[in-house]
Amino acid sequence: MTSRLEELYLEGEHAIKNGDFVEAIHKLEEMLSEDPQSCRAHNSLGWLYKTQLDEYERAEMHYKMCLKYAPNYPHAYWNYVYLLTDLERFDEATQLMQRALTVPSIDKPAVHNRLGLIHELQGDYETAVECYKQAIRLSLNNDFIEDAKRNIERCEYKITL
User: Fold this and answer.
1) What is the DSSP code (8-state) at residue 70?
2) All residues at 6 or more sequence positions from 158 whose CB lies less than 8 Å from its CB, including other chains
3) What is the per-residue pLDDT across 78-107, written as a single tens digit (0 to 9) for each?
4) What is the dihedral of CA 82, 84, 89, 91, to 10 degrees?
5) What is the Rg, in whole angstroms, of the alpha carbon atoms belonging to the chain?
6) pLDDT at 2
7) Residue 108 pLDDT > 70
8) What local confidence, expressed as pLDDT, does residue 36 receive?
């Protein structure tokens, strides 16, 4: 990334943090006009369109572009899976998380935890429990492990209903 593109990105992110979403969109779109393959700009625009403007189709387009140009960029996987989960597109969310498991820098325990949540939302509690257990096996974070244990307990309770 050139220094000009870095500057635009940082200005866009600064505008997001300050709640100036119009300015953020302008900076990020300017960045894309100079580098249409900028995964950072696509990911940030996807986040803006989803969370601030409820324009899910535009958000999805940006997440897809980000992953097309930078398939190992972990942030887009998270933002995109939140969108797919919110839209109850669980099969696509599962496929995306399976693909995310191939990304070297992605948090694998968190991916398995997200897979557990997706299965839990579909009422497939047994599969959810297995995903949560895999998240625990891969994690070194005690707080995360405790949260995953609670997820398992919740699913085991739901199985009894």
Assistant:
1) -
2) 120, 125
3) 999 999 999 999 999 999 999 999 999 999
4) -80
5) 18
6) 60
7) yes
8) 95
**74, 105 Cβ separation under 8 angstroms:** yes
- Residue 1, pLDDT above cutoff 70: no
| Amino acid (one-letter) located at 37 | Q
What letter would DSSP give residue 9? Answer: H
**H or E element at residue 79:** helix 74-86
What are the structure tokens assigned to 42, written together?
A: 């696509």
* 24, 15 Cβ separation under 8 angstroms: yes
Domains annotated for the chain, with CATH where assigned, are 1-79 (1.25.40.10)
CB of 69 within 8 A of CB of 42?
Answer: yes
- List all residues 6 or more positions away from 16 whose beta carbon is below 8 Å from its beta carbon: 24, 44, 47, 48
What pLDDT band is residue 145 in, cutting at 50, 70 and 90? Answer: very high
